[in-house]
Design goal:
heterodimer, A: 288 residues, alpha/beta, Rossmann fold, 7-stranded mixed β-sheet, 9 helices, 34% helix, globular, B: 389 residues, alpha+beta, D-amino Acid Aminotransferase, Chain A, domain 1, Dna Ligase, domain 1, 3 domains, 6-stranded antiparallel β-sheet, 4-stranded antiparallel β-sheet, 13 helices, 18 strands
């Protein structure tokens, strides 16, 4: 079982530019059903063997797609998310980095009743090992198994997945929720999915400074979760007021510091790894 | 992106938000003649730097004559202003803003931001103006009024009125406040601001509302659609290394330590800083070279790190996902040779083709310390810097 996508998921690619094409190719190689691309003005053509449509609506009508991955540049990405929701997709994963925060705040309100789940933006995507790859993750480091992995970052997620795989612990789903201050799905949303997923036995959660998503996650773990959670929080030594790469990774007005997040998580019974090198081994210890 | 007070106030004016009359001056004579034109019994000379708390540091002075305004400008321009927001190194003052005085009856606080918690626009107001708002929030939270605004629907007039009455304005003033707030909100939305803060917002003895100070930050991600705002950037206000990094399109933050860091991915870069600190070392910077780091970018990253005179050793930490470690290794070898690396280098490659990458480093005949695990990399980086001392 996977929480978001599996072998049968039919995926559209919105934005078949250089990056979109490249990753569509890798996803197809991995066995993902990439059924079409959406690129206004190029409908009717084919790129890398993928049929291209002018609109999401046309693509869905022709292919029966139920998910989409968005590579559209920042100025048009929020609009692409709205189009995906209007097209009746079940899942959209937005990879685009650099979308204005206000655009995302508005977009979230506008898609709230659409029934579409949004992952991202500014995220590496979702991998269900040996089944489906949506986004830009290096799927080869994953392997099927009982651990759910959710993170606000990209390469740090790969680091954790790599550690788990090397220690013999496969993954149910690996995903990044994105490094922006407004993202479609939060830690709480994803933890709830992992809790409900029969394949997932434990969860790795990788947070970072900024906002309060980790504190909310801690509360959720305390109140609602039966499965063990291992966490790491990046930015333990980050200076206040500085944006650490991700738009959302900033300690502001005394809020969003790593120490507060770690404290909240530990108080909720989460095993917090203090070093990023020990995420895998902490999970191993937790699982006994 | 941050702008100066005088730039913020020009934008306020554009949106019908009342501010005192004022002029920018870059020397004493300009300040004197500005004060003369502004007239009145008193003018205020304000240092223009990107930092709050200027008054306590001597960056805001009252002048009772044009000559005195000129003297204040003389003192301020060229001085290094240290406030609690500038850090110990302070900020050099290059220009001052000369503003007409006014009779103040009340001081309030007003701000608009995008609230991460609710993902709504938040209007924050308080009757306790002119004070540190975080202290007010701490000691008297009941004096802080929050209005959350749906980002699609926008601000309604009734919300402005309701807030006005909570701030103890009378009927006429509430109408003025509603207009004032309306203009400010339009500015916030149309220019993609991330924060507008007016502290204090004053009520004059004639009952008018004036923004006496103005802080304005913009969403960097939205600057692509506001070239007129991007043009307000003052490079002099930015750290030299951070400015150079921005020109190279790197995500970079200057830090206090001596271990230069080059990492792919923001999360891993933060985690690398954490590891260095835990190993007893001190990082010189945060640097994300990005997911598609090629030879040119690696070379630029080395050049950037080496411009920091405090750097005594460099740690390169790359997790090869899509990007292959053997290509990264080739880039590191080539860049090391072309920039003439003068400090010890520790490289940790993991992920796709990592072994091949490590072999390339080992066979390069360059003095590169190759580490396999994160822990090993951090320990070695701390050790090589220790040896340098």
């Amino acid at each position: 079982m996977s929480i978001l996508c599996d072998k049968s998921t039919k995926v559209l690619v919105q934005g078949m530019g250089r990056t979109g094409r490249f990753h569509a190719g890798l996803s197809i190689e991995y066995g993902t059903k990439i059924v079409g691309g959406v690129h206004p003005g190029k409908g009717g053509s084919e790129i890398e063997g993928v049929p291209i449509y002018n609109t999401v609506e046309q693509a869905v009508a022709a292919t029966g797609a139920d998910a989409s991955v968005i590579f559209v540049p920042p100025g048009g990405a929020a609009d692409a998310i709205l189009e995906a929701a209007h097209g009746g997709l079940r899942l959209a994963v937005c990879i685009t980095e650099g979308i204005p925060a206000a655009d995302m705040a508005r977009t979230k309100v506008q898609i709230a009743d659409s029934g579409m789940l949004l992952i991202g933006p500014n995220c590496p995507g979702v991998v269900t090992p040996e089944q489906c790859r949506i986004g830009i993750m290096p799927a080869a480091i994953t392997k099927p198994g009982p651990i759910g992995v959710v993170s606000r970052s990209g390469t740090l997620t790969y680091e954790a997945v790599d550690q788990l795989t090397r220690l013999g612990m496969g993954q149910s789903t690996c995903l990044g929720i994105g490094g922006d201050s407004v993202v479609g799905s939060t830690f709480v949303d994803v933890l709830a999915m992992f809790e409900a997923d029969p394949q997932t036995e434990a969860v790795v959660m990788i947070g970072e400074i900024g906002g309060s998503a980790e504190e909310k996650a801690a509360q959720f773990v305390k109140d609602k979760m039966s499965k063990p959670v291992v966490a790491f929080i990046a930015g333990q030594n980050a200076p206040p007021g500085k944006r650490m790469g991700h738009a959302g990774a900033i300690i502001s007005g005394g809020k969003g510091a790593a120490a507060d997040k770690i404290e909240a998580l530990q108080a909720a019974g989460v095993a917090v790894s203090h070093s990023p090198a020990d995420i895998g081994s902490t999970m191993k210890t937790v699982r006994g | 992106m941050n702008v100066h007070e005088y730039q913020a106030k020009a934008l306020f004016r554009e949106y019908g938000v009342a501010v005192p009359d004022g002029e920018l001056a870059t020397n004493a004579e300009e300040a004197r003649s500005a004060a003369q034109r502004l007239g009145g019994d008193v003018t205020v000379v304000k240092a223009q730097v990107h930092a709050g708390g200027r008054g306590k540091g001597g960056g805001i002075k009252l002048a009772h004559s044009p000559e005195e305004a000129g003297q204040h400008a003389e003192t301020m321009i060229g001085m290094t202003l240290v406030t609690k927001q500038t850090g110990a190194e302070g900020k050099k003052v290059r220009k001052v803003y000369v503003e007409g005085g006014c009779d103040i009856e009340r001081e309030l606080y007003l701000a608009i931001t995008l609230d991460r918690e609710s993902e709504r626009f938040a209007v924050i107001a308080s009757t306790e103006g002119g004070m540190d708002i975080e202290e007010v929030a701490e000691s008297t939270p009941e004096k802080i009024h929050n209005v959350l605004v749906d980002p699609v629907a926008g601000l309604s007039s009734w919300q402005g009125r309701a807030l006005g009455f909570r701030l103890d304005f009378d009927g006429d003033q509430v109408k003025r406040f509603d207009q004032f707030l309306g203009g400010l909100f339009r500015l916030f939305v149309e220019k993609d601001a991330s924060l507008i803060e007016i502290n204090p917002l004053v009520v004059t003895s004639e009952g008018n509302l004036l923004a006496l100070d103005g802080k304005l930050n913009f969403d960097d991600n939205a600057l692509f659609r506001h070239p007129e705002i991007a043009a307000l950037r003052d490079p002099e206000e930015e750290n030299f290394l951070e400015r150079t990094a921005a020109e190279m399109d790197f995500s970079y933050v200057s830090l206090d330590g001596n271990i230069g860091c080059m990492v792919n991915g923001a999360g891993l870069a933060m985690a690398t800083l954490d590891m260095i600190s835990q190993a007893g070392g001190s990082p010189a910077n945060f640097l994300d070279v990005g997911g598609d780091a090629d030879k040119t970018r690696i070379e630029n990253a080395f050049k950037l790190i080496l411009q920091d005179e405090d750097v005594q050793g460099i740690l390169v930490n790359i997790f090869g996902g899509i990007v292959r470690c053997d290509l990264i290794a080739e880039g590191v070898v080539a860049a090391t040779q072309s920039v003439g690396l003068s400090v010890p280098l520790v490289v940790r490659l993991q992920g796709t083709n990592a072994e091949e990458g490590r072999r390339i480093l080992a066979e390069s005949s360059l003095d590169i310390d190759s580490a396999e695990t994160l822990q090993d990399a951090a320990d070695r980086a701390v050790a090589v810097v220790g040896q340098g001392n």
